[in-house]
DNA sequence: GGTCTGATTGACT
DNA sequence: GTCAATCAGACCC
């Protein structure tokens, strides 16, 4: 596909011009609101971003994964801007970020929600249970296979893998279009982003033909109306709660509901001796 | 090596 | 509204 306008299944005509790497070479709290309305494409699925959160660098932002410095897990965040930082959390979910600032800075923007504008059927298949498409929608050419798909049939899988393969929910319930990528983990599933996509470059340098294996890109899309951009505290974090680095498009139905951080109750197994362990 | 927490989600009451 | 699932990473001893 060339430059200019691209007509997606949903969302109308959007600019298909890729964002340059310089777009991401700015502080994450500046990049974040500018990302609203942009389109992240991975394989056959494209999502127009409607909600994001900015995270700062080491020693700067207590809520950021990089606050305590570089580790193997967060190494991608210290890499060049425009790359995807995909991490595994809660034992079952993946979340995706776009790295900001020059190499070594350690800041990124978490992609929290969006509207699926292309590849709706593929996105729904990934989010839905019991359909062959859950394993058949993936992969786009050049994409790696999901963790679940990478295993042979019948082999035991973790709940996380099962969820990724789309069979963690009772069959028969159709997911509303607005919910396909509403929430960071849902967005990652809809886009088919997994552990192996950590570090994937989302910037197209030069002609796409010169990067035949690149499967992710951020397109100009249709930037959000500045009058509709809202900001507030970030979701689900226990520190730096007052930093208003969550940005969303006001009134957009795909924006996820705000949830404050809920401290985990100590389990019975952890608080008393002799009781049954968790689960 | 042991323990705790987590940038979440879906099921359930 | 509450709660459990699930495991990797970080921290502490």
TrEMBL record:
Its EC number(s): 3.2.2.-
Keyword DNA damage: yes
GO MF annotations in UniProt: alkylbase DNA N-glycosylase activity; DNA binding
GO biological process: base-excision repair
Gene3D superfamilies: Methylpurine-DNA glycosylase (MPG)
Keywords recorded for this protein, A-Z: DNA damage, DNA repair, Glycosidase, Hydrolase
Region listing for Disordered, in residue ranges: 122-170
Record-linked InterPro entries: Formyl_transferase-like_C_sf, MPG, MPG_sf
Biased composition annotated in UniProt, kind: Basic and acidic residues: 146-166
EC top class, as a word: hydrolase
UniProt keyword Cell membrane present: no
Family note: Belongs to the DNA glycosylase MPG family.
UniProt-listed HAMAP family: 3MGH (MF_00527)
Name by which UniProt lists this protein: Putative 3-methyladenine DNA glycosylase
Organism this protein belongs to: Nonomuraea thailandensis
């Amino acid at each position: 596909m060339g430059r200019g306008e691209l007509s997606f299944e949903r969302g109308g005509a959007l600019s298909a011009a890729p964002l340059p790497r310089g777009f991401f070479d700015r502080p994450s709290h500046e990049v974040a609101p500018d990302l609203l309305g942009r389109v992240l494409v991975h394989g056959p699925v494209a999502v127009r971003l409607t909600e994001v959160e900015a995270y700062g660098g080491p020693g700067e932002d207590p809520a950021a994964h990089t606050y305590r410095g570089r580790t193997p897990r967060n190494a991608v965040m210290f890499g060049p801007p425009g790359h995807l930082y995909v991490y595994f959390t809660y034992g079952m979910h993946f979340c995706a970020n776009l790295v900001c600032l020059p190499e070594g800075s350690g800041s990124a923007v978490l992609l929290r929600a969006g509207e699926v504008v292309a590849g709706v059927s593929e996105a729904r298949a990934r989010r839905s249970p019991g359909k062959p498409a859950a394993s058949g929608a993936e992969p786009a050419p050049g994409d790696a296979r999901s963790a679940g798909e990478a295993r042979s049939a019948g082999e035991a899988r973790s709940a996380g893998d099962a969820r990724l393969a789309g069979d963690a929910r009772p069959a028969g319930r159709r997911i509303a279009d607005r919910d396909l990528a509403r929430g960071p983990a849902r967005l990652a599933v809809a886009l088919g982003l997994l552990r192996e996509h950590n570090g994937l470059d989302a910037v197209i340098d030069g002609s796409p033909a010169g990067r035949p294996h690149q499967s992710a890109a951020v397109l100009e899309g249709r930037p959000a109306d500045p009058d509709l951009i809202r900001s507030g505290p970030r979701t689900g974090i226990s520190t730096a709660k007052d930093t208003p680095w969550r940005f969303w498009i006001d009134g957009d139905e795909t924006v996820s509901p705000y949830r404050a951080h809920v401290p985990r109750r100590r389990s019975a197994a952890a608080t008393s001796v002799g009781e049954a362990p968790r689960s």
